[in-house]
Design a protein that fits this description.
mainly beta; seven-stranded mixed sheet; 127 residues; four-stranded antiparallel sheet
């Protein structure tokens, strides 16, 4: 059973940085795509960023390009989301998600493509 556990959320001032971690367990993830999504009350879950575990290819939402980066630590089965230059509009619950498919399959930015989700971690950016 795939398990995803996020950590690293918190409160930060605008312009600050946070690093989120997604610890994955239960499978060998070499064929998986890992994505981060975020959600605020009353809104749909929004794609943020994704990485191919196999070759490290990445895909970013326009809203975070130049500010967020994603990486993976194969030895620790962990995906990291480094968030810099945070803005109040980045405030949301951030979710880690996994799908057992390569980057080229389906829509990497579509929440419905992902079969496994973490519990979420709150990120709050104050102005």
């Amino acid at each position: 059973q795939v398990q995803l556990v996020e950590s690293g959320g918190g409160l930060v001032q605008a312009g600050g940085s946070l690093r989120l971690s997604c610890a994955a367990s239960g499978r060998t993830f070499s064929s998986y795509t890992i994505g981060w999504f975020r959600q605020t009350p009353g809104k749909e879950r929004e794609f943020v960023i994704a990485i191919s575990w196999f070759d490290g290819r990445t895909f970013y939402a326009d809203s975070v390009k130049g500010r967020f980066t994603i990486s993976r630590d194969n030895a620790k089965n962990t995906v990291l989301l480094q968030m810099n230059s945070l803005k109040p509009e980045d405030t949301a619950v951030y979710y880690c998600a996994a799908k057992n498919a390569p980057f080229s399959t389906g829509n990497v930015a579509a929440p419905n493509d992902y079969g496994y989700w973490g519990q979420g971690t709150q990120v709050t950016v104050s102005s």
